[in-house]
């Protein structure tokens, strides 16, 4: 038995705690806020937030979401689900809330974690579960202080706790990712006016393609994944991305045509200029209900530009326009930082371009007694984090023997090169997104563990059916083997 320290009590921290507890280890989870949930905690969830993935797919393998939840649960429902998960598996008593990690160092035997307030704890192994939504990112724009000094309100999306904060006000929302378009859609119904400022239009997908087919059937299957040019190709992918290239090209153009028609993108003047297959990753947004219709009717005014500077209450745009909003909300994402980790270790696990470089997105072979869960974000992060937690717990417990260090480092270098040269969008979220190769990632981890990668022997069924976390409950219960 080892004392395992887990930093963060979000999705990844909770499933990691469960995996290590089930292996018989002593576990302490350090969470800086007053409650669990991570990005789903009420203090970080913006008004009107829902999941992008449907209810049954955004769940752990052995703890389904309640059937009375809507298909796209709210932030409050997700946090309640995570709390019930922690209670059900006996994790709550292992979480220490209000614990901010200031620094940590390896003394040659253990990690010494120093907390705000002066307390230090020694751990035999540390798992960092701060994930991709660690620190809100607000761009440094000249004159920001002059705007707030003049009475303007600047917010990050994570600080927007209630729609009332926008009621009756002239609102500007910055960005085009999920949080920005969600907030703009909410603001359109309660604000005096709503303007969305974005650098470029991005592709979004509907909850129902053609208003009839649930998105999971077209996005969350091995079939859909086969149309991407993966680094490690299956036999089918080798065919599709050689002699089958015209078919692949037609597949994507037909999908774009469907989205153009369904959303009326030309009418909205929000037609992306890039190919959809070059964008699809963890940032692929699901259209907030009625977002494009509100753009088309003018309830949301979209301006494709950037903020150049603030001059008192005036917001000067790069296209020359000057607007005077009461509130500016930045839906500009998060930074993936680890400020508590010594610089030498930060430099070890990141590249010169700022991307994380980890074997299987879980550990670095030269970083002793430390792992990362949730650094393999996907379109169904609950499941990818859960399988990663099982993988890491098996490694620490000695059930999974890793390849030689030089082999792991070679694989990491190949992945880094592929991200930079073949798929630039893979650099998104500092390289922590495994999508759209969700299945490929899961298959690698399951094979490492010596476990099945498919729930049945029906190849055709397995190829076309959408992901089902419940399948992995039985598969993860199998016996691991040494690789």
TrEMBL record:
Keywords: FAD, Flavoprotein, NADP, Oxidoreductase. SUPFAM superfamilies: FAD/NAD(P)-binding domain. Pfam families: FMO-like (PF00743). It comes from the Bacteria. One of its GO terms (molecular function) is NADP binding. The keyword Oxidoreductase applies. Belongs to the FMO family. PANTHER family: DIMETHYLANILINE MONOOXYGENASE. This is Cation diffusion facilitator CzcD-associated flavoprotein CzcO.
């Amino acid at each position: 038995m080892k004392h395992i320290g887990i930093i963060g009590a979000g999705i990844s921290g909770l499933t990691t705690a469960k995996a290590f507890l089930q292996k018989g280890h002593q576990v302490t989870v350090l969470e800086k806020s007053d409650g669990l949930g991570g990005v789903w905690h009420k203090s970080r969830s913006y008004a009107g937030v829902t999941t992008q993935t449907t209810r049954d797919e955004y769940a752990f393998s052995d703890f389904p979401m309640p059937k009375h939840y809507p298909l796209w649960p709210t932030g409050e429902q997700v946090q309640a689900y995570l709390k019930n998960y922690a209670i059900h598996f006996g994790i709550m008593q292992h979480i220490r809330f209000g614990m901010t990690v200031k620094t940590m160092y390896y003394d040659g035997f253990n990690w010494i974690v120093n907390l705000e307030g002066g307390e230090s704890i020694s751990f035999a192994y540390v798992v960092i579960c701060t994930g991709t939504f660690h620190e809100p990112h607000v761009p440094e724009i000249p004159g920001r202080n002059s705007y707030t000094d003049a009475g303007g309100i600047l917010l990050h999306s994570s600080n927007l706790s209630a729609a009332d904060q926008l009621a009756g006000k002239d609102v500007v929302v910055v960005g085009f990712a999920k949080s920005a378009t969600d907030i703009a859609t909410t603001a359109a119904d309660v604000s005096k006016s709503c303007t969305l400022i974005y650098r470029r239009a991005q592709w979004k997908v509907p909850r129902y393609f053609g208003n009839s087919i649930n998105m999971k059937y077209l996005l969350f299957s091995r079939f859909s994944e086969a149309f991407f040019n993966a680094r490690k190709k299956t036999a089918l992918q080798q065919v599709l991305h050689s002699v089958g290239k015209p078919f692949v090209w037609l597949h994507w153009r037909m999908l774009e045509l469907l989205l153009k028609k369904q959303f009326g993108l030309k009418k909205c003047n929000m037609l992306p200029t890039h190919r959809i297959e070059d964008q699809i990753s963890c940032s692929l947004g699901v259209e907030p209900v009625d977002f494009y219709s509100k753009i088309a009717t003018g309830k949301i005014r979209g301006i494709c530009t950037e903020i150049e500077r603030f001059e008192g209450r005036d917001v000067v745009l790069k296209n020359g326009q000057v607007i005077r909003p009461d509130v500016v909300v930045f839906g500009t994402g998060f930074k993936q930082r680890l400020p508590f980790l010594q610089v030498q270790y930060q430099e070890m696990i990141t590249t010169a371009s700022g991307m994380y470089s980890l074997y299987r997105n879980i550990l670095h072979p030269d970083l002793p007694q430390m792992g990362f869960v949730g650094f393999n974000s996907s379109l169904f992060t609950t499941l990818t984090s859960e399988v990663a937690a099982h993988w890491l717990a098996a490694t620490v417990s000695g059930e999974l023997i890793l390849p030689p260090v030089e082999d792991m480092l070679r694989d990491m270098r190949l992945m880094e090169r592929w991200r930079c040269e073949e798929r630039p969008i893979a650099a998104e979220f500092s390289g922590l997104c495994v999508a759209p190769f969700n299945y490929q990632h899961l298959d690698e981890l399951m094979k490492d563990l010596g476990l099945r990668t498919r729930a049945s022997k029906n190849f055709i069924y397995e190829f076309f059916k959408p992901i089902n976390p419940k399948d992995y409950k039985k598969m993860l219960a199998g016996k691991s083997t040494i690789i």
